[in-house]
C-alpha cells in the first residue's frame, strides 16, 4: 500500500488517520458516558477525566494533521456509479463531522477550564485556561459537549451505513478504498 492516496484508493496515512480518529471518538464517547456517573469515592474519579482530556486534546491535534493531510493529498476520484446526490451528501457529512468534532473539543476545553485550571495533557504540558468567566460555563459547555457527541455518533453511524450500502448493495469499492484495499478485479503488481 502506498503512503499517499492514488486515483483509485486511499493511502496508508489517510487510512490510518481515518480509523484512528473513528476508534478514538468511539472510545472517548464510551469513557465520557461512563465517567459522568463516577462518585467522588470511585478510584477512577480523577484518572478517568485525566485520560479523557489528554486523549481528547491529542485527538484534536490528529484532526488538524488529518485536515492538513487531506488538503495536501487529493482524495481518490469518485467512483462512476456514485450519484450526484451521494457525492453532495458525502461532502456534507464529512464537513459536519469535522465541524462537530471541533465543537466537541472546544466545549470540552470550556468544561475543563471553567474553574480557571488548565488542561494537563498526559502530564507532559498544560494548556492554559484563557476563558473562564462565562455564566454557567461548565454546565452550558457540558450540555453542548454531550449533545454534539451524540450527534457525531449518529452521523458516524449513518456514514458507516452508507459505506456498507456501497459495499453490499452497490458492490462498489467505496469501503475497500478506505480500508486501503485494491479495487475489485485489480491485478497485483509483481
Name some characteristics of this structure.
single chain; 190 residues; mainly alpha; Fumarate Reductase Cytochrome B subunit; two-stranded antiparallel sheet; 5 helices; 2 strands; 3% strand
Explain what the structure shows.
By secondary structure, this protein is mainly α. The protein has 5 helices and 2 strands; from the N terminus they run H-H-H-E-E-H-H. The chain has a single domain, classed as Fumarate Reductase Cytochrome B subunit (Up-down Bundle). It has helices at 12-35, 47-72, 84-112, 137-169, 174-178, and strands at 119-121, 125-127. It has a two-stranded antiparallel ribbon. Strand 1 (119-121) and strand 2 form a beta hairpin. 16% of the residues are buried.
Helix and strand run: HHHEEHH
Number of strands: 2
CATH topology annotation? Fumarate Reductase Cytochrome B subunit
CATH C-level name: Mainly Alpha
> pLDDT average, as an integer?
93
Helix content: 55-70%
Give the radius of gyration: 19 Å
Label the overall shape.
elongated
Main sheet strand line-up: 1-2
Q: Could you describe the largest sheet, including whether it forms a barrel?
A: 2 strands, antiparallel
**Helix count, DSSP H or I runs of 4 or more residues:** 5
How many structural domains are formed by the residues? Answer: 1
Reported CATH architecture: Up-down Bundle
Q: What proportion strand?
A: under 5%
